[in-house]
Amino acid sequence: MALHELPRVDQLNLASLELPDTHPAARLGRTVPVHGFLIHHPDGAILVDTGVGFGNDFIDELYRPSCTALDAALASCEVAVADVVAVVNSHLHFDHCGQNPVLFGGSTSFYSQDIELGAVTADDYYTDRRWALCPRSQQRVVNGDEEIAEGVTILSTPGHTAGHQSVLVQARDERVVVGGQLVWHGDELEAEVASAANVDDIAELKQAAVDSIRRIKSLHPSIGGAPHEWVVPQGSV
Ligand SMILES: [Zn+2]
Fold it and tell me: What CATH number labels 9-218?
């Protein structure tokens, strides 16, 4: 079902990182932002990604993050932590789920793809599990696409990770897609490429990434955002 009116979608500036030389996107710029997106849904705020967390010495040393506390970022959009009814993590790398724990122990639901949760448990170096894994009672496991609130649908968009997901928000005559890390930069949408900055050099993932980009473009969304780009592209995803 589509909403009567498109809700406001705000971009949150949650952190900036200094990419190490070894990072595949470092050649595009060493200092990168980390964004989240806040959907002001009439049933409660829905947060897409929570940025980088606090207290991981390895990440602090390697990426030198400068973080904004989630409660302050939400307050800048007139939203309190208690107003967040759902968190959708585009994927569970450390820079997309880092402040999930702020919402642990409450009633907020956390949505991740089953395959993404599997990657977290299978690989000790995939992320910080203290941030990625919420209490079992709050975990909602998604397989593919799922409507989680009126007009808000999670879309499976593998590529950057096999369990990557995006969020479609639909009103009667408008659509917004929050694309997570569907791309690193907006121009990858235009070119329909799986960039080396964003997708591992694995044929299956690269093809999945291109298919995901084409799928999102076929929805003709009005706006959206890339999580590591300073300017949100207008008129595209
Ligand atoms: Zn990632």
Answer: 3.60.15.10
